[in-house]
Amino acid sequence: MQPKQTILLVEDEQEPAEMLANFLEMSDYRVLLARDGREALDIIDKEAGDIQVAVLDIMVPHVNGKEICRVIRKHPVLSDIPVIFLTAKDKEKDEIEGLELGADDYISKPASLKLVKAHIESLLRRQHPKNSKWIQHGSLYLDTAGKDLYSGNQRIDLTSTEYALTELFFQNPKRVYTRQEILEHISGDDRFVFDRTVDVHIKNLRLKLGEDADMIKTYRGMGYGMNRDLIN
């Protein structure tokens, strides 16, 4: 079964927001609805790997649609997704500024539900499939195609061994690995390594993770793995 495409919808007017969200869900989309900018940013932090398109009302409380668009365009996972602005009628200035910020389209309010859906589907058809495969845990994003790790918007510079460790843990977040299993994963044909080498690599990886260091947990008497209390 084809997974549903996910839409981030940011709209503070309750009735239009619920009507549009329900209509899109009936059209077999998954909708993440935010009523203000802070809620939208929280959804981005938690769900970035699943969002395929963003529909943003410009005038929402706390963090407006323009700022949300800026965050999306700088985000390692979301930077190339289609963004549609919902603007008040005859607000040409907002439309121009939105396009300059990197929005792909704009729709003047009020707009019919079918019109919004048509714009979304048009942009999704033009969107090239992503080559990247993202795995997210907390604020960390692993790009298994590009071999990169990000914390929020910041790329973390890893050695090849540190990346191999990270990928092993991210792809199997509920498993605990012994030192020997980790050694076999990272050493390749080189068998002349010591099990304490793993401890050094784990220590260096945690240092690079900074505030996210707790994502890698030591299971005493067992080995290492993802912190099950922190993973999604």
From TrEMBL:
Coiled coil: none
Any one GO CC term of the record: protein-DNA complex
GO molecular function terms listed in the Swiss-Prot or TrEMBL record: phosphorelay response regulator activity; transcription cis-regulatory region binding
Segments forming domain OmpR/PhoB-type: 132-228
Domain Response regulatory span(s) in chain numbering: 6-124
Protein name: DNA-binding response regulator
Positions where 4-aspartylphosphate occurs in the chain: D57
Gene3D superfamilies registered for this protein in UniProt: 3.40.50.2300, Winged helix-like DNA-binding domain superfamily/Winged helix DNA-binding domain
Keywords: DNA-binding, Phosphoprotein, Transcription, Transcription regulation, Two-component regulatory system
Taxonomy, superkingdom: Bacteria
Organism, as annotated: Rhodohalobacter mucosus
Transcription regulation among keywords: yes
